[in-house]
Amino acid sequence: MSKARVPWKAVIGGSIGNMVEWYDWFVYSSFAIYFAASFFPEGNDTAKLLNTAAIFAVGFFMRPLGGWLLGRYADRRGRKAALTLTVTLMSASALLIAIAPTYEAVGYFGALVLVVARLLQGLSVGGEYAASATYLTEATPRGRRGFASSFQYVSMTAGQLVGLGLQIILQNTMSKEALSSYGWRIPFVVGALAAAVVFYLRRNLLETEAYDEEERDHSKGRGTIRALLGHKKEALLVIALTMGGTVAYYTYTTYLTKYLSNTAGLPKETATLVSFCALFIFMCLQPLAGGLSDRIGRRPLLITFGIGSMLGTVPLMTALGGVQGFGGGLVLSLIGLVIVTGYTSINAVVKAELFPTNVRALGVALPYAIANALFGGTAEYVALWFKDSGIESGFFWYVSGCAAVSLVVYLTMRETRDAALSRTELATQGETVPTRV
Predict the structure, then answer these.
(1) 3-state SS string over the chain?
(2) Sequence-ordered list of residues with C-beta below 8 angstroms from that of 24, at least 6 positions apart, any chain
(3) How far from chain centre, in Å, is Cα 162?
(4) Are 231 and 355 in contact (CB under 8 A)?
(5) What is the predicted pLDDT for the residue at 436?
(6) For residue 124, how many other CB atoms are within 10 A of its CB?
(7) Binning pLDDT at 50, 70 and 90, where does residue 292 land?
(8) What is the pLDDT of residues 181-195, one digit of tens each?
(9) Structure confidence at residue 37 (pLDDT)
(10) Could you give the CA distance from residue 122 to residue 65 in angstroms, rounded to a whole number?
(11) Which of 202, 240, 274, 360 has the largest count of CB atoms under 10 Å?
C-alpha cells in the first residue's frame, strides 16, 4: 500500500458537512413531537404529527433533484464550490426552522416556512453526498482513498450521535412544556451555527488536481445528462450496488430503535441506548474497513457485505425481535452493523472511482439519490407495512433480496482500487492518457 500522507485538512473539510447534514436530518424527525403543535391548529395530535411527517417526506423527494443540480454544479464549477454551496443551504434551512413563526402568530405561514426549509435541506443532502465523495476521493493519494473516504460515514454517524446526545440532554434538563414552547428551537440554532463553521472551513479548501486539469482543458459537456448517458453502465451499477447497502443501513440504524421497542418490547430508553452504543462502535469501524480496502481491494469488502446481509438478515432480525435486555440487543445490533460496514466504509470511493472527472460528481449524485429514495428512504415504511400486515418477517426477506441483487453486481463488477483519477496519476502508471471524444 502507498505510504502517501493523508491530507487531513481535506478529509475534515470534505466530510464534516455530512455531520451537520445528518444532525439536521435527525433532529427534525426526533423533535417533531415537540414542535408539531406550534405549526398547526388545535385538534388531533396524531394529525399534527402526520402533517409534520409529510413535510419531512418532502426532503426525500428533493434529494434526486439536489443530486442532479448540485452534481452538475460540482462538475462545472468545482468540488470546492459545490461543498460551499451545500453547507450554505444547510445553514439556511436550519436557521429557517429555528426562527419559523408559530400558527398562533401567523397561521399556516409558519408551516410554509417549514416546507421551504425542508426543500432546501433535501437539495443540500442530495448534493452533499456526491460533492463530499468526489472531493475526498480526488483529494487523497491513491492507496489511501478507501481510508479517507470512510470518514464520510464517520461524520454522518457522528451527526446522528450528536443529535441524539443533545436530545437526551434537553429532555433531562427541560420540562416537556418548555421543550414544546421554545426548547425545540435550540437544536436548529446549533445546526445553523455548526454549518457556519463548516462554511469557513470549506472556504479555505484547495480545489482537487483532477478537477483543475479538467477545467484547464475547457472540456464541453461537463456535468450534463448527455455526458452521463455516455456512462449508462456505470450509472446503473451505482443504483444496483447501492440498493442492498442503503436498505441494510437504514434497517440497522434509523429503524432499529423502533424495532427493538415495538417488536422486542424493550423500554424506549433501553432501545435508544442500544442504538447509541452500537452506532458509536460502528462509527469507529469505518476507517479500519476503509484502510483494509486500500490493501485488499474494494470488491472483497462489498462481497462480504453482500453475502452477510443476504444470509444473515433473517436470522439476525428474528433474534433481535426476541431480545430481553441491553446486552443481547447490543451484541446482535453490532453483528448487523459490522456486516453493513463492508458497504458503508467504501461505497463513496467505489462510486467516484467508476466515473471520469468531467461527470464524476453527477455520476455519483444522481444514481445514488435515485437508489436512496427508492430503497433507503422507503425502508422504514416497507418494514412497518409488513408489520401492519401481520407478516413482519417478510421485511427481513425483502432486505435479503435487495442484498442478493447487489451481491450479483459486486461479484461481476471490476475492481476500482487502482483507478487513476487524473492525468498525473495515469502518467505515473505509465499509461497513455485517453483522447477525449
Answers:
(1) CCCCCCCHHHHHHHHHHHHHHHHHHHHHHHHHHHHHHHHCCCCCHHHHHHHHHHHHHHHHHHHHHHHHHHHHHHHHHCHHHHHHHHHHHHHHHHHHHHHCCCHHHHCCHHHHHHHHHHHHHHHHHHHHHHHHHHHHHHHCCCCCHHHHHCHHHHHHHHHHHHHHHHHHHHHHHCCHHHHHHCHHHHHHHHHHHHHHHHHHHHHCCCCCHHHHHHHHCCCCCCCCHHHHHCCHHHHHHHHHHHHHHHHHHHHHCCCHHHHHHHCCCCCHHHHHHHHHHHHHHHHHHHHHHHHHHHHHCHHHHHHHHHHHHHHHHHHHHHHHCCCCCHHHHHHHHHHHHHHHHHHHCCHHHHHHHHCCHHHHHHHHHHHHHHHHHHHHCCHHHHHHHHHHCCCCHHHHHHHHHHHHHHHHHHHHCCCCCCCCCCHHHHHHCCCCCCCCC
(2) 90, 93, 94, 121, 159, 188, 191
(3) 15
(4) yes
(5) 39
(6) 31
(7) very high
(8) 899 999 999 999 999
(9) 78
(10) 8
(11) 360
The grid coordinates listed for 424 are 498525473
Distance in angstroms between the alpha carbons of the first and the last residue of the chain: 33
Cell of 353: 472511482
Q: Cell 424506549 belongs to which residue?
A: 268
In Å, how far are 62, 226, 361, 362, 392 from 223, measured between CA atoms? 19, 8, 7, 6, 42
CATH superfamily of 1-226: MFS general substrate transporter like domains (1.20.1250.20)
355 vs 341: CA distance, rounded Å: 23
User: Domain locations in the chain?
Assistant: 1-226, 232-354+378-414
- Fold match, 1-226 / 232-354+378-414: yes
pLDDT tens, residue by residue, 129-181: 888 989 999 888 888 999 999 999 999 999 989 988 898 889 889 998 898 88
**CA-based radius of gyration for the chain:** 21
Model pTM score = 0.85
Closest CA to 359 of 74, 138, 127, 137: 74
Say which range, 20-29, 66-75, 223-232, has the weakest mean pLDDT: 20-29
Pairwise CA distance, residues 133 & 121, whole Å: 18
232-354+378-414: CATH class: mainly alpha
Nearest one of 200, 202, 223 to 211, comparing CA atoms: 223
Q: pLDDT for 6-56, tens place per residue?
A: 888 888 888 888 898 889 878 887 787 788 778 877 665 666 656 666 776
* Average of per-residue pLDDT values in the chain: 87
